Amino acid sequence: IDLRGGGQIGVLQQRRIERAIGVIYRPESERLSHYFHARLPEQFDAIIHIDETQAVEPLERTSIWEEGELPETYPFKV
């Protein structure tokens, strides 16, 4: 959706709760520290919706790359 003007973005002008990217999941403070209010057209030029994703992996696997247990900060491990 192009947000750079036009009448089609009227409903998106409303202030909405947006989840921050890259936060460490902490259930006890989630509402206060993970979300903020935003108006999408003031923040972005466009919105793209992706139905399915997968975890990223390095292009070149080096000795640093190690599959194993997920860190404790992963939302489902807390």
Overview of the molecule:
The chain is largely without helices or strands. The protein has a domain of 48 residues. It contains two helices and two strands. It has a two-stranded antiparallel sheet with strand order 1-2. The longest helix has 4 residues. The two termini are 35 Å apart.
Secondary-structure map:
Elements: E1 16-19, H1 30-33, E2 35-38, H2 40-43
Antiparallel strand pairs: 1-2
Short description:
The protein is mostly loops. It has helices at 30-33, 40-43, and strands at residues 16-19, 35-38.
List keywords for this structure.
78 residues, little secondary structure, two-stranded antiparallel sheet, 2 helices, flat, 10% helix
Instruction: Give the number of DSSP strands.
Output: 2
Distance between the termini: 35 Å
Please work out how many helical segments DSSP would assign: 2
Instruction: Enumerate the spans where pLDDT stays under 50 for 5 or more consecutive residues.
Output: none
